[in-house]
Design a protein that fits this description.
The protein is built from 9 helices and 12 strands. It has about 325 residues and is an alpha/beta fold. The chain has a single domain, classed as Aldolase class I (TIM Barrel, Alpha-Beta Barrel). Strands 7-8-9-6-5-4-3-2-1-10-11-12 form a 12-stranded mixed sheet. Helix 1 (about 45-55) runs parallel beside helix 2 (about 75-80), helix 2 runs parallel beside helix 3 (about 105-115) and helix 3 packs parallel to helix 5 (about 140-155). The protein is globular.
Length: about 325
């Protein structure tokens, strides 16, 4: 039986965090402090859980972190997922979200193993601003090389995600418009969400979709492209059809009504929403000896509790029990 929540939404997309370690300390994510405690499971555990999810109707598997490319063995893990079959008999659509720092050398091996697409986080097309946001001195050139390697390997469409923060990088909107057109990548601007470790989020820091569109139209007139209902980004191109911009606006224009996603944290817990207040311990049941049938039944029971929507910015909003790096992007 396919996964469907009580609100009638089919759950077809699984995001699997394979580590909460990261080689960057982005200001909208990590505190920048040393000495954090990290969690990750053996790949055999993730593979078993992914296999069960795929057997219940999951069609897309996205590997996240932390920084997933830090895990030795990720290429073989991708190869193992590519050997699974969805309920329709197809290979799962396998993607990765990465900061791109290690991607230049890994893009082609990942593609050969069965990876279909890559999303790279890059929050400025200016090396100095990039270093200020990531708190890594020499990362910009590595990420740019990773983006270009993903293009060469055919991990298309290559998407570049930029989290906009007022006072840090809102002046990069037009620069990213040029970058999309020159590099042949999809640039996606993401509204800053209250998921950072430092808990500094306020509405005032958020650069909204309406502001982004205003800036883009100052660069060149934009027109909207069609979306599928479950897409998180509203898609745009310019008047001449060159370049593509996506805007993910969970704060100003929520898209919860068509959510098709479920997340698996690096310690094997199910999260039905980024802003869930509770985890559901799938790995714990697995390690206690539950068979695949019992685990599938548990997954269905958890999906039945999926929230109808988040409540960012509303009175009484409670921030989630984990920050983004401990949930998985």
């Amino acid at each position: 039986m396919r996964l469907r929540d009580k609100h009638g939404r089919d759950i077809t997309d699984l995001r699997v965090s394979i580590t909460d370690r990261c080689n960057y300390k982005c200001v909208y994510c990590r505190t920048g402090n040393e000495g954090a405690v990290y969690s990750e499971l053996p790949f055999a555990d993730y593979l078993r859980m992914v296999r069960i999810f795929v057997g219940q109707g999951i069609e897309k598997v996205r590997l996240t972190g932390g920084e997933p490319l830090l895990r030795g063995g990720i290429v073989e893990f991708v190869r193992s997922i590519a050997q699974l079959r969805t309920l329709s008999g197809e290979t799962p659509d396998i993607a990765v979200t990465t900061n791109g720092h290690l991607l230049a050398e890994m893009a082609q091996p990942l593609k050969d193993a069965g990876l279909k697409r890559a999303t790279i986080s890059m929050d400025a097309v200016d090396a100095e601003k990039f270093a200020r946001i990531t708190r890594v001195a020499n990362g910009y050139d590595n990420v740019l090389a990773g983006i270009r390697a993903a293009k060469r390997a055919g991990l298309e469409p290559v998407k570049v995600n930029c989290v906009l923060l007022r006072g840090f990088n809102e002046d990069q909107i037009m620069e990213f418009a040029r970058f999309s057109r020159e590099e042949g990548v999809v640039v996606r601007f993401i509204e800053f969400m209250p998921l950072e470790e430092d808990r500094v989020w306020t509405k005032e820091i958020v650069v909204t979709m309406d502001e982004i569109l205003e800036k883009l139209n100052q660069f060149r007139p934009v027109r909207q492209l069609p979306n599928t209902p479950s897409e998180t980004a509203r898609r745009y191109t310019f008047d001449d059809g060159l370049g593509e911009i996506g805007i993910i606006a969970p704060v100003s224009h929520p898209f919860c009504g068509h959510c098709s996603r479920v997340r698996l944290t690096s310690d094997g817990k199910i999260r039905t929403c980024l802003f869930s207040l509770f985890d559901h311990d799938l790995a714990g049941r697995m390690h206690q000896g539950a068979d695949d049938s019992a685990l599938a039944e548990y997954i269905h029971s958890v999906i039945g509790q999926k929230e109808v929507r988040h409540h960012i910015g509303e009175p009484g909003f409670v921030k989630p029990s984990r920050s983004m790096v401990h949930i998985g992007g």
